[in-house]
Amino acid sequence: MKILYAVQKTGNGHLARAQEIIPLLEKYGDVTVLTSGSQSQIQLGFPVALDFKGISLFYGSNGNVSFLKTLFKNNYAQFIYQVLKLNVHKFDLIINDYEPISAWACKFKGGNIVALSHQSSLFFNETPKPKKIKWLSWKIFKNYAPVVKKYGFHFEEYNEHIFRPVIRKKISDLKTSNAGHYVVYLPSFSDIKIIKELKKTSANWIIFSKTATASYTANNCTVFPIDENEFLKSIANSAGVLCNAGFELPAETLFLKKKLFVIPIKKQIEQECNAFALKKMGVLTAKNLDFNLIEMWVLFNRIIPVNYTSNIEDIIEDVILENTQSNNELIFI
């Protein structure tokens, strides 16, 4: 069986999850990996046959999505050309992790495509969402990578087609301790803005920056360029994590039994929904960097218990079996 696994690179979470999923897909046949996007800082670690610029969200410096950057930094004519050029019919099954080129190619041309992503979970009625969601933001989110058949990952199993987070081996193998520092990953804020607020607190902070080219120290903050190994080591030895309201990093933080504080990126509907769900679980959230709230969080030792046991092999098997024309198509290698 020929499988296309399509992953977007806006953020690092999709690639982190793909590191666990690709070897499992390879048990069922020949896997071609397609990636698109330009906002990731980690390496996939597997050969990528098709790598496109795609469509990415770009952030400002004050915790927000920059619609101007998003509008002008994306090449929409190139995107349409890549959609039209992609031959989706050479694959028996396409598994899509919120990747727009393969999704739109299948929408125009047909193709056996299924969504397997965190974003998919937000389309189920049972998934917690804020009461007020901007209509235009929802339309854009819904049509970014349109796929009819959906399986999702979320912090809890809100529906039979929603699974708990995939905890990659790099995380589950970590030996944890508490050296007292806190890890910060807030790519939607400038380093200057982050340091300005955190220097008022009583804690020590390790900040991972998408713009820093070398490490440096300012007051009680040490700033590092993004490096996956250093990042994982810092989290394993931390007291907690302050980050945007993405999916994989908050889930991994909860799995490691670390304190968690999230700030959703403004005007980013997925993050608003994630923050809403996390708040219902007891995680402290805020709309902006607020040193008073952060200091309260530092002083308040509350760990949110979760049970994220890895069942990704069963999930992949179910998705494959449910979406092939015949079980006889499966090739176990």
Q: What would your notes on this structure say?
A:
With 333 residues, the protein is an alpha/beta fold. The protein is built from 13 helices and 14 strands. It has a seven-stranded parallel β-sheet with strand order 3-2-1-4-5-6-7, sandwiched between helices. Helix 3 (76-85) packs across helix 4 (100-109). The radius of gyration is 20 Å and the shape is globular. Residues 326-333 have low confidence and may be disordered.
Helix fraction, binned, reads: 25-40%
Can you give the mean pLDDT?
A: 90
Largest sheet composition: 7 strands, parallel
How many beta-strand elements?
Answer: 14
What structural category arises from helix and sheet content?
alpha/beta
Brief write-up:
This protein is an alpha/beta fold and 333 residues long. The protein has 13 helices and 14 strands.
Write the layout of secondary structure elements.
Elements: E1 2-10, H1 13-25, E2 30-39, E3 50-52, H2 67-73, H3 76-85, E4 93-97, H4 100-109, E5 113-117, H5 118-121, H6 135-144, E6 150-153, E7 162-163, H7 169-172, E8 182-185, H8 191-198, E9 205-209, E10 216-218, E11 221-225, H9 228-236, E12 240-244, H10 248-255, E13 259-263, H11 269-281, E14 284-285, H12 291-299, H13 312-322
Helix pairs in contact: 3-4
